[in-house]
User: What shape does this take?
Amino acid sequence: MLPTTESRWIALDGAFNVRDLGGYPLPDGVTRWGELLRGDSLHRLTTDDQRRLIDYGVRTVIDLRHLGELETAPDVFSTSAEVAYHHASVYRVNMSAGTVSLPPDLAVIYRHIVDECQAGLRETLDIIADAPAGAVLFHCTAGKDRTGIVAALLLSLAGVAQDVILEDFALTSVAMERMRAFLPQHDSPERQATFEKLLASDPADLRSLIDHLNARYGGVEAYVKQLGLSPNQIYRIRERLIQPYAPQGDAR
Assistant: This one.
């Protein structure tokens, strides 16, 4: 039985998809609470929201958005004195400038990210491996695609089962209903239909990506090694995320 949605979500007024990756079952333990958080854009966070995240333990924020997104909606923690802010854009171009056109097929986009946007993923994993004590919150705009890929890589490295990783990915569909009030509506039915496809959190799209990582790279661990992560960095990521079961008879 997975933790309930309510226990995983962090209720905020200015963001809709911030949640903890703790409590997922592992062969010999669970993922740690309060270590890795995934989220959507943080530019609308109120002062109280910011304090809640800091009190929750957030000490590092990684912003996966491209430059155009930062220009129109800067992360509130980018000037924080209490949280280390890192910009680790997955897309190393300003997508708002129309320099790149992505297809309306999330499975294809996800393969594009892991194949062609490796510098941003490598930087993100580097930051997580080297982050000081405290929770790390990584986010994009909706907290679904770029964030979902990073979360899948981390949970896979920890040893979380694939079906559980897919369930975590699908949780964004709950948040998406709350986000809709802030999303554009298109005049053309065709454009709106294409837009709706991009809003989906279909586990089949992430399953397709995992299949691609297995077929092309030999699995997630082989992939992150190909990115350039060292065995020590992979160990530190696992140490951050894995909470072993206490030995029988250990009352602690």
Summary: The beta strands are 19-20, 25-26, 29-31, 36-39, 58-63, 84-87, 135-139, 242-244. Residues 203-217 form the longest helix (15 residues). Residues 58 and 135 are 4 Å apart (CA to CA).
